[in-house]
């Protein structure tokens, strides 16, 4: 099952997952062993046909409030839901996954903060462009987390690969995995 935002932590907490890769702050109520894999940065992106794309100055808060943000829904059942790159009182078009987010952005609908590594293909093809913004979204930590009692051949196989920096680079890209916490684990 796919999870998003705090839904990933919720899946670990409620035993719907044994091992997760999640972004953001570790919720206080989640008991897990963790390894910081790195930091993920975000850029404001839009379609080249979006009004923000032609703008010569950084997009300000008021402009963002007057536009639609395309946001991915938090799939958490129990933990508080997070909003990702949205402002209070901002009009939102909430989608269930990144693919839907990208499809709307490419059609010129709204704006979103997304990791550059996630949209490399769209940026290279010109389907999306990044725009400067006055109030940048902060970096988010990328975590590998698992139950302290997790064991078994499947868990061990995944854990071994996801704690090897070379495998994490191939999974997420070298530019995504920066300032990682290797080799330190946090309990």
From TrEMBL:
Residues 7-164 form the LysR substrate-binding domain. Transmembrane segments: none annotated. One of its GO terms (biological process) is regulation of DNA-templated transcription. This is LysR family transcriptional regulator. It comes from the Bacteria. Keywords: Transcription, Transcription regulation. The keyword Kinase does not apply. One of its GO terms (molecular function) is transcription cis-regulatory region binding. The keyword Lyase does not apply. PANTHER family: HTH-TYPE TRANSCRIPTIONAL REGULATOR, LYSR FAMILY TRANSCRIPTIONAL REGULATOR. InterPro entries: LysR_subst-bd. Belongs to the LysR transcriptional regulatory family. The lineage of its organism: Bacteria, Pseudomonadati, Pseudomonadota, Gammaproteobacteria, Enterobacterales.
